[in-house]
Amino acid sequence: MMNGNKISKIQKITRDNLSNEFYLQSLLQEALSCKIISEAEYKKILENLIKLLAEETQKFTKGESSSVRTETAKAILDSMCYKISIYLKSINNCDAAVLILLERPLRDILSSGNKLIESKLKVVVSLYKKINKNRINTPNNAYNDTIGKGLKLFFKEYDKDFESNETPVAIDYPLCIECSNYVGVEFIINYMISMYWENVFCSYFVDTEIHSIMQSINHDYEGLLVNIFEQTLLNSLANIIIGKPDKLKLYINDITDLYGTLKIKSDSELRKLFSDAAAEYKTQIVNFDDYLRNYISKAIDKFLPSILHALHTNTLDKIFATENNTEKSDIIHIINEKRISDEKFRELVDEIRTCENISDKITMIMAVSSIKDLIDILEANCFFGDEYLKLFTILDEVEFALLNKASGIKSERGEDHEWQGYFNEYYSKLSNTIKSKIILNSELLPEIDI
Questions:
Q1: Is the domain of 340 the same as that of 439?
Q2: How far is it, in rounded angstroms, from Cα 92 to Cα 15?
């Protein structure tokens, strides 16, 4: 029925119409429906499958019997079909894949599927190493248990010979875009690839900042089944839209600004606004490739309906992780906070100096409560070059205003420290709106004795 076994230039079978989980079965059904194969050819393929099942059953019982329980036979058959499907999926032309089923022995196709699974298992090992290397520093139990325990089960329990379509994992951590319709080694690869790129995105933000916005959702978020990438992306895009591209935290006044920008947009304009904001990652993220771009696009499609609903109900603060604005009493507290002892200060400075990871350095400095101690650390050769710029991204508007005021006082005295130059560089790149708020906060601050 296939024009003398020649492939037509016009494909009759569309890949999107086929099941990822039951690829062989759906391919045969489509081939029959599109009249690519005849009823006789369809039945012949099924007969060959049954013969191959008998051979595989002999292998399963180590030659002792060709008879097993019905559920065992079904499991072996499902595994066979999965391995055959793995190979057929590697053929880009679906019609050509049907031709292979007619012309090649199923045993050969099964063998090719086995080799592909072996190759994919090596990919799984490589991906797991990458995920461990770029994992997010978070207290979230589902995330940590999935990497530390759940995914490891696959390496111990996966049976590539007779249960290749099974997925023996204990995964609690939800991805932003779930891997639907995949099983076996294909599921684990797709899950790991998505987790890897979620980690890549989050790695461009300071761990303590991510932790802070997650705590804004729920202070005890470590016990929640929540996707960290999604909330990080949401807050990052919101900040880009309101002119604060290097920030993650959002305050009530930021949500007000965001609402004013979003409410005047139509649905299509809103989609374009978020897409344009996401386009800025191309210049910010070194490893920003097509997969991550498409993944972010799907994420935007996912949460846009919730944003639209929130705009109608004035509940944007329920979508974007939002912190309360710092009160004046908190500002005074930051200024007057008791300084750490000289001994502890020296220990902290030594620890920061010997640390090579900027995220870890920032985590250490987060323990500092006094603005005076912060300034002393900035002037103690703990940070170098662009590390200052990374540090400044975690400051909120009040903290930034405090440093701005301190830098001005030091400049008036004729003092010129390295951090001040990078501070001015960072400040110059902020939007006029943010600069105005910083200037206003600086003017409202009491005198600082530094």
A1: yes
A2: 9
The number of folded domains in the chain is: 3
Q: Are 419 and 385 in contact (CB under 8 A)?
A: no
**Which tokens in the block code for residue 133?**
């290397």
Which residues lie across from 251 on neighbouring strands?
323
Low-confidence ranges of the chain (pLDDT < 50): 1, 3-4, 325-334, 336
Same domain, 232 and 334: no
List pLDDT tens digits, range 56-92: 999 999 888 778 899 999 999 999 999 999 999 999 8
Question: How far apart are the C-alpha atoms of 186 and 174, rounded to whole Å?
Answer: 17
Domain that holds residue 42: 15-115
Cross-strand bridge partners of residue 166? none
Query: Rounded CA gap, 280 and 278, in Å?
Result: 5
- Where helices occur in 61-140 by DSSP H, the ranges are 70-89, 94-103, 106-133
pLDDT (tens digit per residue) in 305-361: 999 988 988 889 889 998 864 444 444 444 545 678 888 889 999 999 999 888 888
Angle at 118 between CA 85 and CA 148, to 5 degrees: 105
- The answer to whether 112 touches 88, Cβ cutoff 8 Å, is no
